[in-house]
Write a structure and sequence with these properties.
By secondary structure, the chain is mostly helical. The chain is built from 18 helices and 2 strands. The two termini are 22 Å apart.
Length: 458
């Protein structure tokens, strides 16, 4: 491995944990709270006088602009991580504060289109720019500081993004319960300040290693497209497609997760299971990427993710686990296993993308290429949830099930077991397609080919 870092003795200024790992966690644990939207989306809808469906588009726009800003601002991140991390801190905090303002305005003017559009712009567009630049900014820096453990380093940061929901959810719920009248917009103002401080500290600490220079090989002096063309273009298309499919399938199942859990008779455990699935999501980000450091070809991780997802999805389809799970412990465990496996694979897919790209295309233009690849996340953010919602609304019919509350009363919950099962038919087909792409289009890395030749020659 070419050594790009001149070691520097002592001091926090040359400590990889202080200059890379901690700032990455500060940035990713802040922006990862975008996934807390489901906690307060109904409250926002009620407060401003719109349907929950209308407000849900704010989250879809946030994910879309996350991917698109990463794609279009990847070169900014490549050239200056300090500028990009500052943009991230300002845009994320400004977007949160703007969302709080338009929620307040909507409370004063119920049903105002301006309030809804303002939330779309603030939470979707402005915060989306902060999400995209904040997600990208620490990744290359981490890989430079942790050259021999790139997967572990990027997995640690991206795990922070995944774990942010589990950490922030109870805090947000406590704020909503404790801030009194207008708690929903007050929470956004308060969190805008907290997250700006966290991200700004991360921005100040983030730094590339002293003495690092662009490698005198793949990527130097070339455009992003020229670097991608150093391998067959089908190789990059394959990486983009399998990343897109993994996110689409993950979002399709995760968006229906709570209703599926209720459907199999575990309505009282929705919160606990949601927390456990978030842990699997974060664990998959760290575990799969750290494991990949030991592999000759990181693409093996994606093969494992797709095979596991196909097996568990297929078992739940064959057994009718969602429809027949209530009262059947084995089927309950099988359905929960599917939820946890998909969450882990969904997270692992994110953390392995930058290191897989660096293995194929080198470090010279990795931020820009990674940013372009995150456009897959943008489109999956618009298609995953919507695909699942359309399937559930089109197939099967709503059914009423009883759920005993803590006070001894019973509430009726509307579910659609057939619809949820049909979502699995769509995802298993997509997972099979992703596995084929993984095997056929994505070529072995140079490291894997060299290892194969050495083994054949021994």
């Amino acid at each position: 491995m070419e050594e790009n870092v001149k070691t520097q003795k002592g001091g926090w200024r040359s400590n990889k944990w202080i200059r890379a790992a901690i700032p990455a966690l500060l940035l990713h644990c802040s922006i990862g709270t975008v996934y807390c939207w489901s906690i307060f989306s109904q409250e926002i809808a009620d407060y401003i006088g719109f349907s929950k469906g209308a407000t849900e588009w704010a989250f879809s726009f946030a994910i879309f602009f996350l991917g698109m800003s990463a794609a279009f601002l990847g070169n900014v991140v490549e050239k200056d991580i300090h500028k990009s991390s500052l943009i991230a801190a300002i845009c994320f905090a400004l977007g949160m504060a703007g969302t709080g303002f338009f929620i307040y305005y909507g409370g004063q003017h119920q049903g105002s289109p301006l309030a809804l559009i303002g939330i779309y712009v603030s939470y979707g567009f402005i915060m989306g720019i902060g999400l995209g630049t904040g997600y990208l900014s620490p990744v290359k820096t981490l890989m430079l500081w942790f050259e021999d453990k790139k997967g572990l380093a990027t997995g640690l940061a991206v795990a922070g993004f995944g774990a942010a929901k589990a950490i922030a959810s109870p805090i947000m719920q406590a704020l909503l319960n404790g801030l009194g009248e207008g708690a929903i917009y007050k929470m956004f103002f308060l969190l805008a300040g907290v997250y700006f401080v966290m991200m700004f500290v991360g921005h100040l600490l983030l730094k590339k290693p002293d003495g690092w220079h662009e490698p005198q090989k793949k990527g130097e002096g070339q455009s992003m497209l020229a670097v991608i063309k150093t391998k067959p273009i089908s190789n990059y298309i394959g990486i983009w497609l399998m990343f897109y499919i993994n996110i689409t399938c993950g979002l399709a199942l995760i968006s229906q997760e709570k209703m599926i859990v209720k459907c199999i008779g575990l309505a009282g455990m929705v919160g606990i299971i949601s927390t456990i699935s978030a842990i699997f999501n974060a664990g998959g980000r760290l575990g799969f990427s750290a494991w990949a450091d030991c592999m000759k070809d990181r693409n093996t991780v994606y093969k494992m993710i797709f095979v596991l997802s196909i097996v568990f999805t297929g078992l739940v389809i064959i057994t009718g686990g969602i429809k027949n799970g209530e009262g059947n412990v084995v089927l309950m465990i099988l359905v929960l296993g599917l939820i946890f496996v998909v969450n882990a694979g969904y997270g692992g897919g994110f953390s392995n993308v930058p290191t897989l790209l660096s293995d194929h295309y080198g470090m010279g233009n990795i931020s820009a290429i990674h940013g372009l690849t995150l456009s897959a996340w943008a489109f999956a953010g618009l298609t995953g949830n919507q695909m699942a919602t359309w399937i559930v609304n089109t197939f099967g019919s709503p059914d009423q099930i009883e759920h005993a509350l803590a006070d001894g009363t019973v509430e009726m919950i509307e579910v659609n077991p057939t619809g949820y099962q049909c979502v699995l038919y769509a995802t298993v087909v997509l997972y099979i397609l992703a596995l084929i792409i993984c095997l056929v289009l994505v070529k072995p890395t140079d490291k894997a080919l060299e290892a194969k030749k050495a083994k054949a020659g021994s």
